[in-house]
Amino acid sequence: MCDLPEGSVLLASSPGCPVQAFRVGERAYGLQFHAEITGKSIEEWSAAYAPEDALGRQVMLRHYQRVKSVFDGYGQTLCENFLRIVKGK
């Protein structure tokens, strides 16, 4: 997705993806990333998208292990903030 849906508000972007997260109205959100990422997800995705590149898969998994605590923290914050919004606080 490169363009925001009509009436939405951009919440996050990056050089590689101009629309990372957005909101429509008060409580509808769209994300183009995986806040729930796990080591198993990385293993499965890399095997599916690069089945013949075992070295690349191992590099990707090692990189994930180095940044796992950062990813986990971001995911936790995202979930806590979303729950706060849903609860109306």
Give the strand order, joined by hyphens, for the main sheet.
1-2-3
- Counted by DSSP, the helix tally is 2
Q: On the 0-100 scale, what is the average pLDDT?
A: 87
Shape: globular
Number of domains in the coordinates?
2
Largest sheet: 3 strands, antiparallel
What's the helical proportion of residues?
Answer: 40-55%
Distance between the termini: 30 Å
Number of strands: 3
Strand content: 15-25%
Structural class label: alpha+beta
Taking all Cα atoms into account, the compactness measure Rg is 16 Å
Low-confidence stretches: none
The helix/strand series, from N terminus to C terminus, equals EEEHH
List the SSEs and their pairings.
Elements: E1 8-14, E2 17-24, E3 28-31, H1 39-49, H2 54-87
Antiparallel strand pairs: 1-2, 2-3
Helix pairs in contact: 1-2
Summarize the model shown:
The chain is an alpha+beta fold. The chain has helices spanning 39-49, 54-87; strands spanning 8-14, 17-24, 28-31. It has two domains: 1-33, no CATH class; 36-89, no CATH class.
Task: Give a written overview of the molecule.
The chain has 89 residues and is of the alpha+beta class. The chain folds into two domains: 1-33, no CATH class; 36-89, no CATH class. The protein contains two helices and three strands. It has helices spanning 39-49, 54-87, and strands at residues 8-14, 17-24, 28-31. It has a three-stranded antiparallel sheet with strand order 1-2-3, with no helix packed on it. Helix 1 (39-49) packs across helix 2 (54-87). The longest helix has 34 residues, at 54-87. The radius of gyration is 16 Å and the shape is globular.
